[in-house]
Amino acid sequence: QLQLVESGGGLVQAGGSLRLSCAASGRTFSSYATGWFRQAPGKEREFVAAISWRSNTYYADSVKGRFTISRDNAKNTVSLQMNSLKPEDTAVYYCAAQNYGLGSRARYEYGYWGQGTQVTVSS
Prior knowledge:
Blueprint: E1 3-7, E2 10-13, E3 18-25, E4 32-39, E5 46-51, E6 57-59, E7 67-72, E8 77-82, E9 91-99, E10 112-113, E11 117-122
Parallel strand pairs: 2-11
Antiparallel strand pairs: 1-3, 3-8, 4-5, 4-9, 5-6, 7-8, 9-10, 9-11
């Protein structure tokens, strides 16, 4: 069974940066696509970014050019570097994994989820 744990969330001012990490255990992570999703209060969980098991990357239009997803298979981690943060980026951020995934934007494609980490961007 694959377990995912997110870290790196916190409070930051608009224009600042945060780096989220998703650490995997229980399975070899290199064969998994990993997606980052976020959920703001009262809103549906939405796609942010994904990296396929072959390391192709995909981004939501709202974060393109500001966020960068990357993976370190040796450390079994996937990171999300978030720059130029905006108040509308405030949400709980979740990482999710899909075995031999292509980096889907669809939540239902991912079978493993972390517990989430809070990101708050103040104006």
